[in-house]
Amino acid sequence: MSGTVQRYRESGPGFAEGEVIDRIEAFRRRRPRLREERITLAHGAGGKSSEALVDAVFLEAFRNPELAELGDGAVLSPPGGQRIAVSTDSFVVSPRRFPGGSIGHLAVHGTVNDLAMAGAVPSWLTAAFVLAEGLEVAELKEIVADMAAAAADAGVTIVAGDTKVVPQGAADGLYITTTGIGLVPDGRALSAAAVRPGDRVLLSGFMGDHGTAVMLARGDLAIEADVRSDTASVAGAVADLLAAAPGTRWLRDPTRGGVGTVCNELARAAGLGVVLEEDSLPVRPVVAGACEMLGIDPLYVANEGKFLAVLPPDEVDAGLAALHAHPLGTRAVEIGSVTTEPAGTVVLRTGFGGTRIVDTLVGDPLPRIC
């Protein structure tokens, strides 16, 4: 790809050397602008519309150095104390129960995993519930039991919470918001700023399981397939990886927007390119088949029990060995590398030897799945 870019730079007709391709790259790297006057579902899909909403509304109002990192969690340094990571997330999945999990599992796993991506050891959660009038108490008890089991498995304690009830029709049965706190070991620092050209990109397992499972569970697509959500706490797998590969640069769980969108976030934040190898991307055949029937690229389908990691080349073997020894990382694989050019861009090298740009998710092509 870099050779192609160079040829364009040398031959752009009517412009100075490199002006055409540089203008294109600069346009693609621009943060999207909020143009809509009303909120749409696309603003919650994790792609360009979400970025525009965050930039124009939340970042503009709450601007501070920690928030400006735009991570899934913030690492804070209290005076005289150990660094802590804080993360919060809301869960609105429909249906509330699906093959492999429920909204209760997601409410724990989603926040615990965001803490793990910051390099923290997850320790405590708070939980807030918005309940719609008419929700069956028996279902609520089942969801809360799922949360308790997930928290126990992840080694975290739910220490505080809140409950609100709204009139029937004002909410879709049940919404949950969780906030998590974890402790960051001394000397551990993960960020896109640490990523270097030549680093390798690892994925801890099959992609697209969760989003596909939820879409099929709704029953309105007339597709029958045995697909289960991958929702799980990855904190243990992350701890094993960091112990074996202490030079790990960056971590992120590819939830909304999937692997493709998260890799774009990495490329822009690091100011580098990411080249993915199509033949290395792990997708279950049943997931690939379902996505093909729906016209969806698995690169953009959500995951809830997987993570991406960027490692220096000399630690890849040790990192993969550690992941393969963990139950959640048996299918971990290297899927790409970090390059100098094209900066801020993700490129997929296809099985036919060609390349195509993998852009950030645009619009809201998928039903809400988290």
Automatic annotation (TrEMBL):
Domain PurM-like C-terminal residues, every copy: 196-347
Pfam families attached to this UniProt entry: AIRS (PF00586), AIRS_C (PF02769)
Transmembrane segments: none
Occurrences of domain PurM-like N-terminal (ranges): 72-184
Superkingdom as given in the UniProt entry: Bacteria
NCBIfam families: hypE
Alphabetical list of PANTHER family matching this protein: CARBAMOYL DEHYDRATASE HYPE, HYDROGENASE ISOENZYMES FORMATION PROTEIN HYPE
Membership in a protein family: Belongs to the HypE family.
Protein name as annotated: Hydrogenase expression/formation protein HypE
Organism: Pseudonocardia kongjuensis
